[in-house]
Amino acid sequence: MLKRYVFFLLVFFVQRITPSFGQLIFEENFFPGYSLERNVRSYSGPKSTLNLEKNQLLFKENNTPVLFGCQKSKGIINLFSHAFTNNEFSLEFLLIDHVNQPIGLLLNLQSDYNTNNSLLNIAYYDKQFIFFLNDSTYTFSSNKEFKKYWQHVVLTYKNHALKIYLNGIEETSIPFYKDDCITGKETVLNIFGYFENEPFMDIPNLLKNIRIYDNELSSEKIKSRYDTVYNKIDNGKFLDNTLHFIVQPYLHYVTQNSINITWETSEPCKSIIRYGEELPLQNIIVVENPDDINELEIKGLKQETPYFYSIISTNKAGEEVNSGILTLKTANKETTPFAFAVIGDTESRPHINNRVSHLIWDERPDFLVHLGDITDGGKQSHKFEWTYEYFEGMSSLISRVPVFPVPGNGEGDLFWYKAYHKLPGQEEFYSFKYGNAEFFMLNSVEKEEFKPGGKQYEWLDESLANSDATWKFVCHHYAPYSSDEDDYGNTWEGKSTRGDEQIREIVPIYEKYNVDVVFYGHLHCYERSHKILKNQVSDTDGVTYVMSGGAGGNLEDFAPTRSFFAAKTFRGHHYVIVTINNNTLQLRMYDLEGRMLDYLDFKK
Fold first, then answer.
1. Quick one: what percent of the chain has pLDDT higher than 70?
2. What region does 318 belong to: left with phi over 0, alpha with psi -120 to 50, or beta?
C-alpha cells in the first residue's frame, strides 16, 4: 500500500526560500511525477529532495479514512511538524480545479498531535471553501479564480483574528481563539484527498503548493506572493529560480529518415542531443538557441530502425537538466506491418492522459494520432494547460512514441499548437505516409474551408487524387456523424442533425477517393459507424467513421434513440489501436481497464 501511495502521491522539491516574505518555515511543491514503468521508468521533471521510499513518516498506513461529504479520504499525507514560537502563523496554498466534477481536499492543522487537538480544518469541495473554526462553520464559494481554474489562498492568524485572502485580496476576517493551542506545541499538517468522482486523480493533481510561516503575513506581502505565483503560472513554469524542463522532450512527425523533437526549458539554454543505435551514444548535435522552446529535426537516420537519444540543457550559470536515455524508431518500409494508436480530447485530465499513456505504451504502437482538443482551451493566455496538463500527462509516452496531431477548438488561436509542433506546410493541415498508408490531417475548426472551393476541400481533393497508398485515412476534430445527445440539436427536446452539417460538406471527397476510415473527436465518447455512402449505410462500399474523443475530456452522452449509422457506441474514457498488415486492417477500442469493447476487421 505504501508503494502505491508513493507512486500516485509523489511530492517533489522541498526548499527553504528567502525570508523576505516572512518567516517561511516550510514549503512543499506537488507534482504527479508520471512515468512509464519497468525498464523505461524515467522522469526528467523537478526531483524530490525527500527519499519517499524511506521516509515512513510521510504516509500513515494505519490511519482510518476521514469522512467528508459522505466520501472516504483517498490517501493521507503528514507533511509538517513544528512548534510555533508566537501566537501567530500564516498558511498559503495553491489549487487548480479543472475537471468539471466535484473533488476536494481537507487540510488539517493539528496541534499537540497525541491529543488529536485540531487547530484548524480547511475544506475545499465542489468549488467551495469551508472553514471549521471555534466549533462553527464558515463557507464561501470560490468564484474568483485566476486564469479560470486557479486559486491562491492565504490564511493569517494574529490577535484572535483569522484573515482569509483569495488571489491576493482579503475576503474576510473571522474571530478565532486558539492561542493556547499554538504556542510551544508541535503542530502537524495533514492532507486528505476526496476524488470519488475522479478515481484516477490524486492529491498532486489538485494541490500544487503549500507554504507555512511562523508569523502573520502583511497584505502587501500576500499581494506580492500572488503576483509571483500568477507570473509563474502565466509562463507555464513549475518552479521559481530553478532550471527545469517546462516541456520534457517529445517526438512528432517521424519519417523513414528523420524525426522531430521539441523541448522547453525554464530559461534559455545550450542543449546537447546525443543519439545512436546503441549505448554509449556516439552522434552529437549542439543547439545554442536563445529561445526557451527548441525544435530539432534529426536527419539522415536509417529507415525502420530503433534509436536511443538524450538531451542535456545547460544554462549560463552551469546548471543542467537531463532527459535521461529515451527511445525512438523511424518509420517503417512500405511492406512492413505497423500499428498506430488514436486518441482525442486529452483536455484537462493529466491523470486520465497518464493512464491512457500506460495502456498505449503496452501495445508499443509505431506512432500516435491525436484528434484535437489537446487542451481544453490552451490559447496563448493559457499556456499552463499545455505544461501542467497535456505534457504532464502525456510526456512519458510521446517522449518515445511520435505524435501526429490535428487542431481542435481547444487550440483555437493555434499559438501554442504551432509553437510546440514542427509539422509540414502550414502545420494546421498536412499529410504523411507510413508503411502502405497515407494520412490526411485537417483543421476542421476552419469549417468554411470544408466547403467546395474551400482551401482544405481543394487541397484534399488534389492530395487524394495523387495518392497511391493502399490505405487512406482522414483525421480531423469535428464530427460529420455523431449520435451525441445535444451538440447538434437537443435530442431530448426535438430533432437533431446527428452530426456537423458544415463538416459533412467535405464527405463527397472521402467517398470519391474511397477513403477507408475517417477519425475525429470533439464529442467525449466513442462511436463507430457502419460503412456510409451517400448518407446511407452500405454493405460493401463507403466510408467508416470513428469518433474517439475519450482521452480526458468531461464525458458526454448519446441520444435516447439509436442513429441509423451507429455500429458501436461507448460512453467512457478510451483509446483505439489500429494494426495494418498489407491488405488487412484490425481496429480495436479499449477502456481504461484495458478491456476490448469494440473491434473491426476487414481486408482490401
1. 87
2. left
Question: How far apart (Å, rounded) are the C-alpha atoms in residues 224 and 242?
Answer: 19
3-state secondary structure 88-100: EEEEEEEEECCCC
Residue showing cell 497535456: 390
CA neighbours closer than 13 Å in the CB half-sphere of residue 209? 20
User: Residue with C-alpha cell 461507448?
Assistant: 570
Q: Are the CB atoms for 574 and 588 separated by under 8 Å?
A: no
Strand pairing category for 403-405 and 367-370: parallel
Separation of CA 602 from chain center: 34
**Three-state DSSP state, 372:** coil
pLDDT on residue 305: 98
Phi, psi of 555 (to 5 degrees): -60, 140
Distance between CA atoms of residues 396 and 45, nearest Å: 11
Whole-angstrom distance, CA of residue 418 vs CA of residue 415: 6
Across 402-430, average pLDDT: 94
Give the residue ranges of DSSP H helices in 379-506: 384, 391-398, 415-419, 455-465
Q: What is the pLDDT of residues 161-190, one digit of tens each?
A: 899 999 999 998 888 776 555 555 677 788
State the residue for C-alpha cell 464530427: 479
Q: How far is CA 456 from CA 174, 213, 331, 443, in A?
A: 61, 58, 26, 8
Helix then strand count (H, E) for the chain reads: 10, 38
Rounded-to-5 percentages of helix, strand, coil across the chain: 20, 40, 45
What is this structure's pTM?
0.92
To 10 degrees, the CA torsion angle through 158, 163, 166, 167? -40
Q: What percent of the chain has pLDDT over 90?
A: 72
What's the farthest any 2 CA atoms get from each other in the chain?
82
User: Which region, left, alpha or beta, applies to residue 270 given φ > 0 means left and ψ of -120 to 50 means alpha?
Assistant: beta
Instruction: Dump pLDDT digits (tens) for 19-34.
Output: 344 588 888 888 888 9
Can you point out the beta strands (E) in 225-269? 245-252, 259-265
Confidence of residue 289 (pLDDT cuts 50, 70, 90): confident
Distance of CA 207 to the CA centre of its chain: 15
Q: What is the mean pLDDT of residues 81-104?
A: 87
- Give, for 225, the enclosing helix (H) or strand (E): helix 219-234
For residue range 367-384, list pLDDT tens digits in order: 999 999 999 999 999 999
Cα radius of gyration rounded to whole Å, the chain = 26
Q: Which residues contact 31 (CB under 8 A, 6 or more apart)?
A: 10, 11, 12, 13, 45, 46, 204, 238, 392
Residues 6+ apart with CB under 8 A from 169: 144, 223
At residue 261, the 3 state secondary structure works out as: strand
Rounded CA-CA distance 440/429 in Å is: 8
273, 294, 433, 458 from 297: Cα distances, Å: 11, 10, 17, 29
Question: Is the confidence at residue 598, as pLDDT, over 60?
Answer: yes
